[in-house]
Amino acid sequence: MGPWRCLLLLPLLAPALRAQQQQFMEYVERRITLLEERISQWHDQSSRYSTELRDFKNQVLGMLEAAEKEREAMRAEAESAAVRVERLEREVDYLETQNPAPPCVEVDETLMDKQVVTAKQRKNEKYNKLTDCSDTIASVRAMKILKRFGSSSGLWTKDAAGSSEKIYVFDGTANDTVYVFPRMREFTLFSATRKAARIKLPYPWVGTGHLVYDGHLYYIRQQGPSFQVIKFNLANKTVVDSSVFPAEEQIPVFGLSPSTYIEVSADEEGLWAIYATKEDEKNMCLAKLDPASLDIEQMWDTPCPRENAEGAFVVCGALHVVYNTRLPSRARVQCVFDVSGTLAPEDASLVYFPKRYGSHASLKYSPRERQIYAWDDGYQIIYRMEMKKKMEV
């Protein structure tokens, strides 16, 4: 196309070019307007965020100041509590210095010898029953494992004579602190001892042969080669009486419980003591105790061997000895000795306990509930007993 033709087309194309230019400028203006609106929005949002951030910072600073004030107040309260505790400890120490020590009963050797002679004179005599109880154990009706508490050896029980629902727990074979739970529910539900009261005894116990009876704790204390029965009032936390057990050269009463030298037991007839001496080291001995004075009223040599015995209890005047093996197996009542002579040995039931974890560390018969509180390798178990009438010889 020649130049002259281009010159002829310019007047025709000029309006179109101006229109495109105008559209382009309008497009650019719209884009700039959008950018300005976005910049304005960003500025507004940035300003709002800055304001919110400043308010949040002020709020956090206020909370930190309040927390610091609360910390200072708590520190002041803790210091005040520490001062009060220290003052209370001083007052307790003062009271302990003012109160007399628990009575240590002097042993009258002449009186003790007289008691031993009297008891030996009545040794192996037929027992005159105090009650009309004529029941004996037929079988273990039910078994309930409550929980696992404490060490492998211990004792738990209720008051064998009173109506209290308190649970008394003796953890271990050598200790001086008794845990007291208000009811079975608190003992069962809580694994810790925070729900338990603590009773600190004046002397540590030995073994697991202790007993709670009519508001008193009867527990065993070792003094060198001899053993002492301590009667402790649970209400006023004092020693009421104590007596050296009148048996010489005592040995562990149960072959599978080497820490227990005296087992204090309760039944419908009252208090009993199960023990063993070197004089007849193969079999156990039984004694009737006076719960008021701790005197030995009568003594018996029993035919029940110590070997493989893990525990024993008395029911209606009849000694029941539970045997096991050194390997865990089913425990069983294999020897029964009735001091009144109303139960022939061949008529006694061979009572089996269900298979458990190991060997019983303690077995406490409750005459008012007709059940046994057992401690087995740290597990607390209740055995409910089925009873039957004795067949007289």
TrEMBL record:
Q: What is this protein called?
A: OLFL3 protein
Q: Which family is this protein grouped under? A: Belongs to the OLFML3 family.
- Any coiled-coil regions, as ranges: 57-98
Per UniProt, residues of the Olfactomedin-like domain are 132-389
Q: Which GO terms describe its cellular component?
A: extracellular space
**Which UniProt key words apply to this protein?**
Coiled coil, Developmental protein, Disulfide bond, Glycoprotein, Secreted, Signal
Q: What are the BP-aspect GO terms?
A: signal transduction
One Pfam match: OLF
What is the top-level taxon of the source organism? Eukaryota
Q: Which InterPro entries does the entry link to? A: Olfac-like_dom (IPR003112), Olfactomedin-like_domain (IPR050605)
Subcellular location, in the record's words? Secreted
Q: Which PANTHER family match?
A: OLFACTOMEDIN-LIKE PROTEIN 3, OLFACTOMEDIN-RELATED
Q: Signal peptide: which range, if any?
A: 1-19
